[in-house]
Amino acid sequence: MKQIEVTILGQSYVLGCPDGGERPLLAAVSRVDSEMSAIRDAGRVKARERIAVLAALNLAYALAEGPAGASGAAADTAAGDVDIEALVARIDRALGADGQLL
């Protein structure tokens, strides 16, 4: 297993990567970085860990929708926004006194 250095939201990480797995790993890193950057650039969330949670939820939601969701999630923005807002509200309730995501 080799190690590769990647950058996500300006932070460097060294990741273990099986031989031949560089391309899918770099694609995943790119997708995570894009998702986190979009959340940060929207300006509503500042804390890196909260950005990471929202990005993880967005990506998990797209995966849960299946193959059509991975490509169609952007096309169905209104429905996606409602579901993501509900997820954010659930996380806010779970965080309680620790703070709100938005």
How would you characterize the overall build of this protein?
This protein has a two-stranded antiparallel ribbon with strand order 1-2. The chain starts with a strand and ends in a 7-residue tail after the last helix. 62% of the residues lie in helices and 14% in strands. 10% of the residues are buried. Helix 1 crosses helix 2 (48-64). The protein has one domain. A hairpin with a 2-residue loop joins strand 1 and strand 2. It is built from 4 helices and 2 strands; from the N terminus they run ββαααα. The chain is of the alpha+beta class and 102 residues long.
Q: Which structural category do the helix and sheet elements fall into?
A: alpha+beta
Described by strand count, sense and barrel closure, the largest sheet is:
2 strands, antiparallel
Shape: globular
- Average predicted confidence as pLDDT: 78
Rg of Cα set: 15 Å
Poorly predicted regions are 71-82
Q: Numbering strands along the chain, what is their spatial order in the largest sheet?
A: 1-2
